[in-house]
Amino acid sequence: MTQLQAEPGAADLADVGPAENFPVGRLVLIEFSGHTIGIIRTRHGVHAIGNRCPHQGGPICRGIVTGTMAPSAPNEYVYEKDGEIIRCPWHGYEFELSTGQSVGAAVRGRVPVYPAEVRGGRVYLALRRKPLADRG
Amino acid sequence: MRVKVDQLDCTGSAMCELSVPEVFVLDSAGLATVRTDGPLTGASVTADGVAVPAELHDAVRAAAAGCPGACISCRPLPLPSPWPRPGRA
């Protein structure tokens, strides 16, 4: 686990390392200003999430990154959002990496999600919550 | 005891609000916060949190222990010194 600290007076987005430290599809845990944050790059961008499941506080960053089964007609099986869903290792609840929302609203609340981006080959993270309107 | 919610880690599961609605409420962003109305009207508020009356301490500790986000902190208020201050009779 990487130990990092936000620099006092630094801009909102903090540099957490080169993008090659965060291979696509692999969740990497970092310790950032006293918070454990999981960072994962996907085909659609980079996501930063807290390490607590809203259900019972399970270590969600130890879960697998996967897709989910979409609602469909009988005898039809529609798999979607591959690589955009994380499944909690404790009880199997699924959450969207981009918003933290529970798939199918199965669980009240959401996984904490923080703004993150890749710029110039480096990953940047802001230690603030994404506002509700800003998700996606 | 002072109570504080770290909204960076809050999962918005509302377990705290369900168990101690006199102290906790979800804000417009769906994240828990400590009330300053109702039984806590006029309570002392500092960077360490909101002072909570003694009759709610056990319930607040239980809510903190059951919080999925582990984002509720409870700090004891400093005890009054048993020693008389210098210069006082």
**Which parts of chain A are unreliable, with pLDDT below 50 for 5 consecutive residues or more?**
5-10
Total discrete domains of chain A: 1
CATH topology category name of chain B: Alpha-Beta Plaits
Secondary-structure content class of chain A: mainly beta
Quaternary state reads heterodimer
Assign the CATH topology of chain A. Answer: Rieske Iron-sulfur Protein
Q: Can you name the CATH architecture of chain B?
A: 2-Layer Sandwich
| Full CATH superfamily name of chain A | Rieske [2Fe-2S] iron-sulphur domain
State the secondary-structure class of chain B.
Answer: alpha+beta
How far the N terminus sits from the C terminus of chain A, by CA atoms, comes to 27 Å
CATH-level-2 architecture of chain A: 3-layer Sandwich
Approximate shape of chain B: elongated
Order of helices and strands of chain A: EEEEEEEEEEE
Largest β sheet strand count, sense and barrel closure of chain B? 4 strands, antiparallel
What's the level 1 CATH class of chain B?
A: Alpha Beta
Spatial strand sequence of the major β-sheet of chain B: 4-5-1-6
Query: How many helix segments of chain A?
Result: 0
Q: What is the tally of helical segments of chain B?
A: 2
